[in-house]
């Protein structure tokens, strides 16, 4: 499997690879090498450059975000199923324009929904959830793995494509009746988000929606959410 995946952006199914932006002059990835091109960090491709990409004409800010995501084959090594194309969103953080647009799109989604709490999952959900909460003017609650929170906690167990684990939050972090949005970087099997829903329900909060940067629909994670609305920026196919 190479680094190419199917990417659905704004309803358009298209091919995407990490080398495409660099080849078009975007300067974010060194073509074929999977490395950052020297001296080009944080310089997004211009509209004219993006128009040269093979999946034109459906060029949008979401495609800019999608192209900022690095794909790492066969990670983590401990997985029983080889061939997974790991979607590494940390490279969005190296592109200020992509990071900014990611947060702005989430803010636009939830600006009018009267959100009381944004709850972000360890680890990458914390990165995207905290600035969203600041922009919305609401509380931020970290959902963390066991042993990371110093106070009394409540827990929920979940199963991912990798392992069985727990997620925790502080007692009293979410109050009865508060309206909560869950944020994570990616939904795969849906186990982590399902555990987050259970945590908020234990606190008698109301989960409005879950938000993820990426969805891997082949793993059918939506089916574990019990009908909870799921907002996704980028859907990637053929990652297995």
UniProtKB/TrEMBL annotation:
Q: Where in the cell is it found?
A: Cytoplasm
Q: In which pathway does it act?
A: Purine metabolism; AMP biosynthesis via salvage pathway; AMP from adenine: step 1/1
- Which of UniProt's keywords are assigned here? Cytoplasm, Glycosyltransferase, Purine salvage, Transferase
Top-rank EC class of the record's enzyme:
transferase
Q: Which SUPFAM superfamilies match?
A: PRTase-like
Q: List GO molecular-function terms, semicolon-separated.
A: adenine phosphoribosyltransferase activity
Q: What are the Phosphoribosyltransferase domain coordinates in residue numbering? A: 91-220
GO term, biological process aspect, one: purine ribonucleoside salvage
- State the reactions this protein catalyses: AMP + diphosphate = 5-phospho-alpha-D-ribose 1-diphosphate + adenine
> Where does it sit, as one GO cellular component term?
cytosol
Q: Does Transferase count among this protein's keywords?
A: yes
Gene3D superfamilies attached to this UniProt entry? 3.40.50.2020
Q: What is its main location?
A: cytoplasm
Enzyme Commission identifier(s): 2.4.2.7
Please tell me whether the keyword Ribonucleoprotein is annotated for this protein.
Answer: no
NCBIfam families with a match to the protein in the record = apt, PRK02304.1-3, PRK02304.1-5
Q: Which family does it belong to?
A: Belongs to the purine/pyrimidine phosphoribosyltransferase family.
Q: How does it assemble?
A: Homodimer.
**The protein's name in its UniProt record:** adenine phosphoribosyltransferase
* Originating organism: Chlorella variabilis
Q: Give the source lineage, highest ranks first.
A: Eukaryota, Viridiplantae, Chlorophyta, core chlorophytes, Trebouxiophyceae
């Amino acid at each position: 499997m190479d680094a190419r995946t199917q990417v659905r952006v704004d309803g358009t199914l298209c091919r995407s690879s990490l080398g495409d932006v660099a080849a078009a002059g975007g300067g974010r990835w060194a073509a074929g090498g999977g490395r950052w091109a020297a001296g080009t960090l944080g310089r997004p491709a211009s509209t004219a450059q993006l128009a040269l990409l093979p999946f034109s004409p459906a060029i949008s800010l979401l495609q800019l975000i999608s192209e900022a995501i690095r794909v790492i084959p066969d990670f983590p090594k401990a997985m029983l199923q080889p061939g997974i194309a790991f979607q590494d969103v940390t490279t969005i953080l190296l592109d200020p324009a992509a990071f900014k647009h990611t947060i702005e799109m989430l803010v636009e989604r939830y600006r009018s929904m009267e959100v009381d709490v944004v709850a972000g999952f360890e680890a990458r959900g914390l990165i995207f959830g905290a600035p969203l909460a600041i922009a919305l003017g609401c509380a931020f609650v970290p959902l963390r793995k066991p042993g990371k929170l110093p106070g009394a906690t409540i827990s929920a167990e979940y199963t991912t494509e990798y392992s069985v684990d727990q997620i925790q939050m502080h007692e009293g972090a979410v109050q009865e009746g508060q309206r909560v949005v869950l944020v994570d970087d990616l939904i795969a099997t849906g186990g982590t988000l399902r555990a987050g829903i259970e945590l908020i329900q234990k606190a008698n909060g109301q989960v409005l929606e879950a938000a993820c940067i990426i969805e891997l629909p082949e793993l059918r994670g939506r089916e574990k959410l019990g009908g909870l609305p799921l907002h996704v920026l980028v859907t990637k196919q053929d990652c297995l």
